[in-house]
Amino acid sequence: MSESENREQKSLTSEEEPNGSVVNPKAVCNVCKRLYRDPKILPCLHTFCSDCISQLEPFSVSSPRDSPEIRMGGVKEGRPVTVTVLCPDCDSEVDLPLSGPQGLSTDHLALDEVFLETLVTDGPLGCDLCGEGGAESRCEVCSVNLCEFCCQAHRRQKRTSSHSIQRLEELKSRGRLCRPVLCALHPGQELRLFCQPCDLPVCLECAATLHRDHRCCPTSDVIDRHGDRIRELVTVRLRPRLERLRDSLQKVDVSQDALQARVDATAGEVRAFARAYASAVEAHCLSLLRRLEELRVQRRNQLHLQRAQLQQALLDVSGGVEFAERLLNLGSDAEILSAKGVTLRRLTSLAESSYDPHPSAVAPDDSNSISFLPREPAGEVEGYPVVGVINSKTVDLSKCTIEGEGVQRGREGQPGHFTLVCRDSAGEQVARGGENILVSIVHVERKNNMLETTVVDNNDGSYRVSYTPEEPGVYSVWVCVKAQHVKGSPFTLTVKRKLRQHSGTFHCCSFCSSGGAKEARCGCPGTMPGGFKGCGHSHKGHPGKPHWSCCGSTVEQSECLPQSVLAAVSPRSHLRTVEL
């Protein structure tokens, strides 16, 4: 930068902060927020003050940064150091030249904006030459502000007589400042030539000295070629891309607006849902409380009934025992014998049929039979799914069911079983086990013949009861839950005698099944002539249909007839191995 430009920069920045009236952002550095001072262009085409660039924190360097010898654009042990900084505007990584920020290109357009901003905002300017009078003109070649006296002197000097001098008021009215770019090495010399090998604009003195062996030509001759390259990149490639980027950005803005609108609408839906769902939850809560009250009343009634049954049983048993003991202790032989009949009948009835609960069947505290399961699905309320159910282990005896034929019929020597399903007052199966189940199976005619039973808790409200009868007959089956009979108890169980398996074969006749063997016999009374000991078709005694050779039964799916029917027939003569 020339000395005149330095003087101009000092003049422009001396009064910029106090008035605070800078309005042109193109004249302000985005780092220091002041008018540009020696503006430099970074490789990313963003402009900042040279001092502001030198104060940026290095992003990376080509060698360790712990040595005090390393500075921006400095060297260490004779080796150059490349410093990379981040652009404060675009955050791009840019490499500074080895000479530091001074090696960057000067932004002359920014200087023009600074000077124009100073003209508009700072009012009268002092003369850059004498420093006494107010500046009225400006030399565009020397870039100095001149008072009237210095302006006339500037025109009289031979070296500056040809310079273009403009009135400051005229420059203000233009709204744009156009001034020549001067050489940094030769103050007062305008850069009018372009050195093609060096790709730099130069002044006449530079062309005659530093670039005398280079091909230099007027800037007007090469501006079209170089300007066209810039123009082509801007017009053909970057301008369309710029439009696409703007369109895309606009679409993103529209999408953001649509997103916000959608979010707001959805938020309204969420709030409405929350209000409705809260209403459904409140209704579900009231329903649960009503269900809880129903269970309380049901359980209370069951306890009242159980208490009344226990009181009546206690009264009956205590009355019978008291009478019998008084009769035995105080009565004479004749009195005892005379009352023996009625006493024995009553005591026997009490011993066999009275309400006799098992001690473990009556729970002293059944408060745990009702619980709340907060995570269990509870269906829908007002169209919304809800969770949380009242779980009741309370069993309604009138709703319990017995499943399986084993409670009505059985077979001697064969295992039998049936299933007790505990249900609540709504008829639903109780979800958990743990009830006190009492099952008693007693022969009706032989009271001392009580079958051993096994009760298995399936932990789902059902209980499997197994037994094995040792003799046929009629049995009485008691099924009690908490010492109370379920619906239908006691049940009648009929046990049939053991099934007799057939030892022979089911055939049409002994002649056919034995292949004509004369010694083959049959359980039927049929005989054949010619010395055959068994039956044959259409002969005397043949039943006229297929029958068992062991017993003569004509029913294939049946049990074998008793041995008394076959007493006249030797078992060793029976046909046992012949298959049809």
Any overview of this molecule?
This protein is α+β, with helices and mostly antiparallel strands and 580 residues long. It has four domains: 3-174, Zinc/RING finger domain, C3HC4 (zinc finger) (Herpes Virus-1, 2-Layer Sandwich); 221-361; 395-496, Immunoglobulins (Immunoglobulin-like, Sandwich), CATH 2.60.40.10; 501-580, no CATH class. The chain has eleven helices and 30 strands. The strands form ten sheets. Strands 20, 22, 23, 26, 27 and 28 form a six-stranded mixed sheet that branches. Strands 19-21-25-24 form a four-stranded antiparallel sheet, with no helix packed on it. The protein has a three-stranded antiparallel sheet with strand order 2-1-8. Helix 8 (219-330) packs antiparallel against helix 10 (340-353). It starts with a helix and ends in a 32-residue tail after the last strand.
CATH architectural label of the largest domain = 2-Layer Sandwich
Q: Could you tell me how far the N terminus lies from the C terminus, measured between alpha carbons in angstroms? A: 129 Å
Instruction: Count the domains.
Output: 4
Can you summarize the main beta sheet? Answer: 6 strands, mixed
Q: In CATH, what is the class of the largest domain? A: Alpha Beta
* Large-scale geometry: elongated
Q: Structural class, judged by helices and strands?
A: alpha+beta
Q: What does the radius of gyration come to?
A: 60 Å
Oligomer: single chain
Q: How many beta strands in the DSSP annotation?
A: 30
Q: Low-confidence parts, pLDDT < 50 over ≥5 residues?
A: 1-20, 64-76, 563-580
Q: The CATH topology of the largest domain is what?
A: Herpes Virus-1
- Number of alpha- plus pi-helical segments: 11
Q: Taking all residues together, what is the mean pLDDT?
A: 81
Helix content: 25-40%
